[in-house]
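U., I forgot to send this yesterday:
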Amino acid sequence: MENDIKATAYHEAGHAVVAHVCGRRFKSITIEPKDNTAGSVKFYDKLAVLRIIDGTHPSDWLSLHKDEAERIVDRHIFSAMAGHIAQEMAFPGSVEPWQWENDREDLLDILIASDPDSGWDRAKAEAEALLSSNWHLVERLAEALLSRRTLTGKEARAILLGEPRAGR
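Result:
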């Protein structure tokens, strides 16, 4: 049970750190189980990303700036991929097939729409590189999650930025 909680903390911290590094904001991060998840990161832009992918986003600006839309989608893909990679890096062999269900469904829909040929491999390589170069932040945020269990986005960002007294 103790290792399950730690694995979840690293999993959710992986999502949040890669999101943070890519400039993707989130509302909260928790390792409290709810419904069929062991924890979660709630993102501000999830609906917007899904609308970009299916072509129903109402913004004319995004349709004129395809590179910005692609950047938004990429940071979503990389942060979604990062949770399982971070968990596996911290606790090899700990990722169970059921843990992939929520992220995998989301990732596959987006990758099929955006880059069906090499999207998965590119996303995995980018998420691994971002996690490796920011592993100290994953550890810092995972430790805060183990202590507090739930953090607001503001609290998590303060921890990631190393602000004094953050997350206490």
